[in-house]
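User: Before I run my own analysis I want an independent prediction to cross-check against. Here's the chain; please return only the structure tokens and, at the end, one sentence I can use as a sanity check.
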Amino acid sequence: MQRNLRIIRILLSAVFLAAAVAYLAMWPDVHPMAKVTEKVQIIPSAITVTLGVTLVWLAITFLFGRVYCSTVCPVGTLQDVVIALRRRLRPGKKFRFQPARKVRYHILLIYAVCLIVGVVAVPMWLEPWNIMRNICAAVNPTAAQAQWIQLGVGTAVGVVAGIVSALLILICAVFTGRGFCNTVCPIGTALSIIEPHCIFHIEIDPDRCTGCLKCEEACPANCIKAVSRYVDNTRCVRCFDCLHVCGDDAIHYQPNRNRPATPLMRKAKT
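Assistant: Structure tokens:
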């Protein structure tokens, strides 16, 4: 049953990405449902609609973790597409555990200050929805024309910004997987602060795990250290790729924490 979570995640992310591209690159009125993609984004909804959507996402993150990053965020799904292509073209290239970088909190602070004081240039380059708008604007310049006018730049500059954004996301996904989400993206960092307190999380059963490293090699967030049976859930984007590749049924998405491996915790007889 848990392996079906990955299929559900892929279907949802594909629908939201297609709707976002249709809304931003083609025309806002392409379909009524396409408009939903902007309204369910955290920052755009908080600025233009209501804080209600943002509060809902905070509640969802508290319950299930960063499912926003794996389903609704178009930049996250775009990275997943690149990662899938990388796996097909370079099957020998595996992911490995990487420690968290504190620079993400500095970027979040800069982003928050710029958002409060109205320096829109920084959010335009860091916030996922704006990045996707820039990328789509390379195809349809009218998609971000209002934002470019606000910044005091012309259409040509906006198109270049979209191309640069696409290239940066592409390069980041190829070499770091979901590195953008866990190091640069301020939304991902903000949600990761809630993550340690969320109810459902990824856990490795130390009594079942054989140390095959498949989960670590499949994790695009580089947050699984198989040798220590450790998952850094603050960086886990809930892609559920680890559940899909584990052949020992040793990794689960669950509400409770696992005990340490039973044989290792027994006292030695004297």
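Sanity check: The chain is about 60% helix and 5% strand.
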